[in-house]
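RECORD TYPE: inverse folding
INPUT: structure tokens
STRUCTURE:
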């Protein structure tokens, strides 16, 4: 039986150049949303993981404060990761006043 949702000329159900998938993959249309979701995921993921580690250590050692330290460490670590991936910097493409925070392509340090 044939699936009516698939395009007739497209192999394996892939859309052609006129499909909506090409517009959704354009980095200029949804770059801010994707970067925001990545920052949110890093920070919330860090809080959850390190809080669980702190909760486990609290249970083993009979303390009550390590879960809070783990949550704080996770939030700081998530922000650090998002900053190192270049998701939290405000770059202006038309205005070249801000230097790029990414490493150079040749691997050398650009410091003078």
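DESIGNED SEQUENCE:
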């Amino acid at each position: 039986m044939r699936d009516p949702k698939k395009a007739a000329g497209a192999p394996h159900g892939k859309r052609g150049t006129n499909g909506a998938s090409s517009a959704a993959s354009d980095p200029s249309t949804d770059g801010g949303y994707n970067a925001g979701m990545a920052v949110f995921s890093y920070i919330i993921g860090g809080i959850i993981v390190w809080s669980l580690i702190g909760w486990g250590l609290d249970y083993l050692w009979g303390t009550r404060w390590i879960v809070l330290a783990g949550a704080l460490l996770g939030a700081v670590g998530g922000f650090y990761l998002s900053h190192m991936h270049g998701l939290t910097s405000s770059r202006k493409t038309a205005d070249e006043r801000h230097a790029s925070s990414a490493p150079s392509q040749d691997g050398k340090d650009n410091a003078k």
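NOTES: Residues 5 and 104 are 45 Å apart (CA to CA).
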